[in-house]
Amino acid sequence: MAVVGAQKLHTTIPFLLLSLFLLLLSPSSQGAKSYSEFRYPFIKRASSFSSLSSSTYSSRHGESVYDYIIVGGGTAGCPLAATLSKKFNVLLLERGGVPFANSNVSFLSNFHITLADISPTSASQAFISTDGVLNARARVLGGGTCINAGFYTRASSRFIEKVGWDAKLVNESYPWIENQIVHRPKLTPWQRAFRDSLLDVGVSPFNGFTYDHLYGTKFGGTIFDRFGRRHTAAELLATADPHKLTVLVYATVLNIVFDTTGKQPKAVGVIFKDENGNRHEAVLRNRRQSEVILSSGALGSPQMLLLSGIGPRADLEKLNISVVLDNEFVGKGMADNPMNTVFVPTNRPIKKSLIQTVGITKFGVYIESSSGFGQSSDSIRCNHGMMSAEIGQLSTIPPKQRTWEAAQAYIKTKRDLPQEAFWGGFILEKIADPLSTGQLTLANTNVDDNPTVTFNYFNHPYDLHRCVDGIRMAAKVVQSKHFTAFTKNTRETIEKLLNATVKANVNLIPKHTNDTKSLEQFCRDTVISIWHYHGGCHVGKVVSPDYKVLGVSRLRVVDGSTFSESPGTNPQATVMMMGRYMGLKILKDRLGQGADL
C-alpha cells in the first residue's frame, strides 16, 4: 500500500473604537489534568492513546481501528461525534484542552480575558489576516462556542434551502442543541434601550424572543445561563455512547494518511502528535463507509487538506508536500463578514452584556450591541478584541504594519486614561453575506502555525455601499431618544462623538459623518472581524453536496469551511446543528431510513 502524508471627547475616542481580537498576554489554564467528570469518562489526553485502547483491532497491524475519525472537537465536531457514536466506534481528536475547569471560558464576566490570552495553550489562537485585521480561531474542545459572544439564532429558511438540507431533519436537529445548552437571556437595561432605539429608527417589526431569522428587531437565545455560565458544544458530548466514543485532547493532527494504490486515493487514517510531541497513527476500519471527517473550521479544514496533499499542485510542490490530489479550489473563496462599530459613552458604569438583541435589516446589514466590558480594570490593562478599545488606534496604521508590537505601544497609553473614559458600550454593524472573497494558503508545513489568509474586505463595491448604509443606521440608533435618555448624552454630544470617531483615522480625514466618501473611508479604515469567517472548502469545488471530498474516498468535511455565506446573524447555532444533522444523515444513509436512531 502506498501511503502519503506527514507534515478598544477626542482624546479617548481613538481607544474606544473596538477591536475583535487584539490580545494581550493574560495566562490561563484550559482545565485540570483529569477529565473524567462523571459525564465525560471518554475524554483523555492524547498521550494516553494506545494501540490496545479499544476492543476492536486491525487484523493486519493490531492497532485500534475506528469507524469514524473526526479531526476537530469544535462547534460541529462535538455534536457530530456524539451522534455517530450511537451506532459506531468514533475517535474525536482535538488539538486544544478542555473548557470545563477554565473560569475565563466558563463565565460571561470573564469573556474578554480568554481573548486576551495569547499563550500557546490558550483557548483562543490569534491570527492577523493579510488585510491587517485582527482575528482569532478556537483551540479548545467545544471550539468557537467557548470563546464567542454566545448569541444563538438560527439560519434563515432561504439559507437552508440554498444549501439543500432536508428541512424536516433540520427542524429536528436545532431543538436537539437548544434543549441541552441554549437559554433565554436576562435582558440588561442597555439591551432594552437598544431594542427601543432600533424600533425607533425603523428596524421593525418587533418579533420578541425567537430563535428564527426574521426581518425586524428581536431578542435571541444565548449559551450563557441565568448565572452567567457558558454552555458549550463540548457539553453535547454527554449524549454520546461512552463505550463507542474516544475523545483525545491535545491531539494535533499532522496529516491524513491515504492509500494511493487504487483508482482514486482513499483515506485510511491520520497521523497526530500528543502533548509531548510523540506521534501516533489512528486507523480507519477497513470498510467502504468508514471515514475521516474534518471538522476543524474554516481555517483548519482547508489547512489540513493542503498539509495532506490535496490542493493546488504548484503550491503543494513549492512546500515539498506530496500531491495526493490536484484541486485548485482548496482554500479559495474565503470570506469574513466585515464589522464596524460606534462607541456610545455613558456617565456611569454599565452592566456587562454581550449580544442579546439584533436588528435584521432588509438592506443586508445586521445591527447588534454590547456593553460594559471596556470599563473593568482588567480590561483597561489588557487587550481583548471585541470588547477592547485599541482598534481605533490601530486603524491609524497601514494594515500591513498592524503588528503585536504596535498594539503594545497603544496599550501603554491606554493605561494612563481615567477609568471613566471607558464607561459605555458599542453599536456593532455587520455586513450580511459579503461578496468580497479571498483565499487561504499555507505559510509553511507546521500545522501549529496559522495559514496565510486574505479576506479582501470591501473589495466588492456593494459591500462598501452596505457598510455606509449600516453606519448611518448605527448613528441613528445612537442619536435616538431612547439611547440619549439612557446614556444621558445630548444629541450634540453624540454628533461630536461620531465625528471624533471618524477623525481617528489618518488616511483620509473626513469632516462630516453624512459625507458618503468619508463614510466609505471610515468603513475601510475601521473594519474589524466578528469571527464569522467561512469558506475554503466550497460545495461543488472541494466537496460534494453531501460534503464528501471530491476525487478521494472515505474523506468528508463538516463545518463552516463549506459555506459560501455565514448562516443567520451569528452562525454558531447552525454550525452545531450541522454537526447533529450530518451525523443523523450519515447514520440514515448507512443503516437505512427506518433505522432506530
Task: Give a brief outline of the structure.
This protein has 597 residues and is an alpha/beta fold. Helix 6 (189-200) packs antiparallel against helix 13 (481-487).
Question: Layout of helices and strands, plus pairs?
Answer:
Layout: E1 3-4, E2 43-45, E3 65-66, E4 68-71, H1 77-84, E5 90-94, H2 103-106, H3 111-116, E6 124-128, E7 134-138, E8 151-152, H4 157-163, H5 167-181, H6 189-200, E9 206-209, E10 216-219, E11 221-222, E12 245-249, E13 252-259, E14 266-273, E15 279-284, E16 291-294, H7 297-307, E17 310-311, H8 313-318, E18 325-326, E19 332-334, E20 338-345, E21 357-360, E22 365-371, H9 377-380, H10 391-394, H11 404-414, E23 424-431, E24 438-441, E25 452-454, H12 461-479, H13 481-487, H14 491-503, H15 516-525, E26 528-529, E27 555-557, H16 572-591
Parallel strand pairs: 2-12, 3-15, 4-5, 4-16, 5-12, 9-10, 16-27, 17-18
Antiparallel strand pairs: 1-13, 6-7, 8-11, 10-21, 13-14, 14-15, 19-24, 20-23, 20-26, 21-22, 22-23, 24-25
